[in-house]
Amino acid sequence: MIQFFGGERATYLLPRDKGAAPLDFVIAVMAFLAALSLGASLVASRAAHSWQSGLSDHITVQVMPPDDGDVRAGLENETQAALSVLHATPGIAHAAPLSDAEINALVEPWIGEDGAVSGIPLPKLIDAVITPGEDVDVARLAARLKQSAPHSSVDDHRRWIARLRGLADAVRFSAYGILLLIAGATAAAVSFATRAGLDAHHEMVALLHQMGALPGFIARAVEWHYFISALLAAALGTVSAGLFFLGAGGLETFGVEAVPFLPPLSLRWDEIPWLLAVPVAASLIAWATARISVLMVVKAIY
Amino acid sequence: MVRFENVGMRYGSGPEVLRDVSFSLEQGSFTFLTGLSGAGKTTLLKLIYVAEPPSRGLISLFGTELATARRKDLPAIRRRIGVVFQDFRLIDHLSAFDNVALPLRLAGKKVSDFSHDVRELLSWVGLGERMHARPATLSGGEQQRIAIARAVVARPDLLIADEPTGNVDPEMGARLLRLIAELNRLGTTVLVATHDRALVEATRGREMRLIDGQLVQMRPTK
Fold this sequence. Notes:
The complex is a heterodimer.
Chain A: H1 20-56, E1 58-63, H2 71-87, E2 92-97, H3 100-111, E3 124-130, H4 138-148, E4 152-155, H5 158-200, H6 202-210, H7 215-249, H8 277-300
Antiparallel strand pairs in A: 1-3, 1-4, 2-3
Helix pairs in contact in A: 1-5, 1-7, 2-4, 5-8, 7-8
Chain B: E1 2-10, E2 16-25, E3 30-34, H1 41-48, E4 56-61, E5 64-65, H2 74-79, E6 81-84, H3 96-106, H4 111-124, H5 140-152, E7 158-162, H6 170-185, E8 189-193, H7 197-201, E9 206-211, E10 214-220
Parallel strand pairs in B: 3-8, 3-9, 6-7, 7-8
Antiparallel strand pairs in B: 1-2, 1-4, 4-5, 9-10
């Protein structure tokens, strides 16, 4: 015997529709896409923050080789002078020159890796870290550095930060836009599926109404059915998206190298709970659509 | 119990299918509604079981004027009426037991309180062995018996039956009529629409005859 009331409630008055599988599939796919775009927006947001914080607390001092005299000695002297100035500057927590190996690695993509460049004097780079919360007057620092090391220049990455911020914002807001579009399409798909299902049960709704069932009773009989169906389908889609992000995080294990500057596609564990919003939202949309639709159907009947 | 005053009914902008119908059904009465197909019997029944509002005139049920009743009061009125629909209107995915028990569940009763009554009623209509069957697996006559059992199970104040014996053999028809008569004896007002003259003549009660949407005759039977 079918225990359709689940106790004294009309929770399962509706049968599981034979034709519901394609609609569940649509909901699952839309939830998958929504979870993907939500995850992408989280990754973009995290990347934007990381890029910004990674550069904003650093200053790079570049010391060019002098044009005449003993180039190497002059370069070394000016580098040491610049370091002295940096160490004496309030707000600079740490300053150290990049090793020759690090500088060679930086220029390697442009002029090759072997010792072909060993004879060419390369500029010295000093990486200075600003004490968190401190502010350094870069213009004054640059002027003082010029006095001690005439061939030095200061780059506070402001231009890069602005460009990266612009790029990150574009990525982030694009992801939000896509997320909104997919959320809207998901809501429409869930709503459509719910209404289509209700059309098939119009006679039963009318019969219950005729037998004196209250609108709230009929709505409860229907709304939980669609709530649970949408929840399960959307959970399936979301879990698939979650597996995608986990899989993307494991690609390096299989030898796929990460692209420099681009963030890893994987989500952190503390970001995963955000994906739960997708099945919750999908099931709530289905629940609300079903309830409103049933109440409208009942209201249209005398 | 039921009172009609100059009731008229038309669907949309079509012709009137009921015209100036006035009558009253006393509590505990047994009435047949007769007339040819298209005379307006089903429409009249729909007005009584509150499925449609009349185009004009006044309808009073259980002392409540429907025209002035609040919408939220109508479900309680409908729950006092048992209806045997001509097309049965059983819920396909529910068993015979659950279909019959539906009015009791709507009334908020617990399975443990009504399970015995439902089983006994299903046995009375000859479906004790098939109470777990779905309607689709039952014959038209068996479906009709479930529809009748569902209409009477909550002992409604008013029972309306549209051709309740149309799909069963004479023996089962007589048995079902005895069930309805027993309910009537316990105080339920009964209105049965039928083409079956033999049924009308064999039962003590009244006959209302409809011709072209007008009530033309009201006479005692038997």
